[in-house]
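Cross-posted from the bioinformatics board.
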Amino acid sequence: MAADRNAALDYTRPIRRILIGGTVVFLLAIFLFWRIDSPRVERARAALIDRIVPGYDWAMAPVTKAADLIEGFQSYKRLAEQNQELRRELRQMKAWKEAALQLEQENAKLLDLNKVRLDPELTYVTGVVMADSGSPFRQSVLINVGARDGIIDGWATTDGLGLVGRISGVGQTTSRVILLTDPNSRVPVTIQPSGQRAVLAGDNSSAPLLDFVEDEDQVRPGDRVISSGDGGVFPAGLLVGHVALGRDQRLRVRLAAEYDRLEFLRVLRSHAGEVIADPGSLVAPEPAEAAKAPGTAQGPEAGDG
Amino acid sequence: MVDPLTLDRWAYRLLYVGLAAALVFVLILPLETRPNRLPGPDWMICLTFSWLQRRPDYLPPWLIASVFLMLDMLLMRPPGLLTALMLIAAEFLRARQQVSVETAFGAEWLLTTGVIATVFLAEGTMLALFAVPEADFARLTVEAVMTVLAYPLAVVVSRFGFAVRRVTPGDLDPRRLGR
């Protein structure tokens, strides 16, 4: 009997080894393929998540609400303190409100004088945050609007106050928002009032880094940072946050969006700006055939890796 | 009539998949979206290693591979990398089982620490080699340490909570324990 078992072992062991070796090679091939052709794999991932995560929804809603409730109870403790703080803030805000109203009227008047029509296409779709990435190395959230609602890769997402991230990965009913804090996130920004261009680079910390600043001497902590619209990925002029000096003496941005509690997100419908590819036709119109070939608008890159 | 050992095995395999699903559920709850928290332990690695060193027949390689590949996809990790490393580590631990049936927990923890460290080191090296942006050795180190520290807890839970325990000579049934 013992001899029998040994014979069986001798026979199955090489097969087993080959099977496991084959699986390991296959898995590493998936990894390599993901590294080479990230968008394709990420699309597959989005489709998979789209299939699975909405199934968790029935369980997720009560848990999230319960956590909210606990947080609410905790905040009762410092109610009095908060009340004082809010009163103080309210007094300041009243002054600001006056200023804002005056400015709004002035702005309306000026816009009217100039016959400016604001872009009517900058509308938005609001989605609810369903899940986050679940990994400490990626910062992203899943929202419950997807291709069904007309969401397209690359659109900007805000929480009403400031920029939160951009869409990367769209499923039928869900889409993933890469947050500005994700190490893959790069967003072109402008620093006001100096007008410096920079790139906001996420690095897994709560305050993303300002990279490629032209002249750091002109940038001061507290300056406003808005999206610049460079590269045609984002609409220009969305508030991102304020410049702050990090503990490592590098320029960082304190984000305006409330990252500690992302619940509802607005996805801004933006349309790729038309690109004038042929300067000659501005001077002298070409024949009809040439004009028919559409200048391909430079679409936003879907990849994130 | 299904033979009780097969039934037992399949029940535990289902439990393993169920635990993985529950873990994903907890991890992707959007309770905290700020990034500056420390990474927690990887409970799935703890669970896999602790079961593997008690009842390797509960976790065949195909189960480990498919569960971890699913986790890779759902948790936005580089797909396939951790799965491949876990499969190799699992085979290593499985091969050590015949000699280490009688080991005390200290020795088991030490061996598992070595394996976990190797898995994380290999993952970090691969991510750095392929220039994946989320390669972050500091975070990976913290995660590895947390995982090592969490391992005894996972063992206690699987031993007393799920009754995953080593086969004693009394239960030995040579015809069926062959994997």
